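pipeline/complex-builder :: batch 7 item 3
reading input block
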Amino acid sequence: MDKIEVVIHNFFKEYAGLESLKNAALLVCRRDGVPLFSYKTFESTWNDSTAGALIGGMWQAAETLTQFIPEVKDEDFRFSFDTSSRGIFIVELSGNFEPLYLSYIYYNLDNPARMKSRVKSIKDKLDMYLDDHLSNVSTRISTQEKEVFLFSDISDDEMDDLFSEVIA
Amino acid sequence: MSFVNYKTKEINCKIVYYGPGLGGKTTNIQYVYKKSAGENKGEMVSLNSENERTIFFDFLPLDLGEIRGFRTRFHLYTVPGQVFYESSRKLILRGVDGVVFVADSQLERMEANIESLKSLQSNLAEQGYDIEKIPLVFQWNKRDLPNVSSVEDMGLTLNQFKRPEFEGVATKGDGVFTTLKSITKLVLMNLKGGL
């Protein structure tokens, strides 16, 4: 796994309490929607990539909409789309790392506000954990690495092989 | 922004289909969805209006096979083509690894193609990308219609960057996978970070 992904997984491994989540899913994804961590207590046909793409898109659309609001400064926004018992709640992880979103999707809850508060608490802890654990590990590719291409050349045959399994 | 996971040997990349409204961007990825084997694709999500015009984006996660030991996952997005959705297009271009410009070959749509290409160039620049460096391919779509510009004219007018270009009839699937294969190759070869 990538370093940031490992750190996030370690955080949730150490964080005792996910087992107590009921009727809920927790997903951490990047701005471009790539999922880094997910935990679900229910079956779903949706894959994490699709959920991540929508979460990233929703957040960024909402963030852009805040430009309509006068006098918005650097504030901690959260995104909420819900009824009294089910919905979606997204917060942005903030620290010295790339933008990440922590989303909480839930249903059949008696007191969603309490869980949202818990999600905010997870966010705060995860912010600190990421800052602490990424400070010694560069999450960015070094300049030297950046200048090297992963694949120096790819043949047409390799591309044909790559697509041979895809096309039904 | 691509995501290379060295430990699990996975590569995630983002490809955006860009172009004028009603040019066939959504039709391209709908065809990919239709023709892809079940285990390779996730759900296709379309955020569109009642008349099926894209208003935010279409999204299709596609697992390709392995290349040199790396499993490859591509996230295909389309942007809304209509002029007034510029802010959505900017959002969707964030973190893009490669662009397919789907142009409408009909003569009367050339102005729309040019306008859309200009918008792509400025939106990429706004986010620090150089259109001359980013992986980019062109698809001249709707070649089956009467009154289309010649391929030479399309290339001269739109493809000043001399990138790969393909003819397409997305409704029939012609050129769809050829175009996707080409942008996929360019994106993979543009990935940074030595083994």
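note: The mean pLDDT of chain B is 91.
queue -> next item
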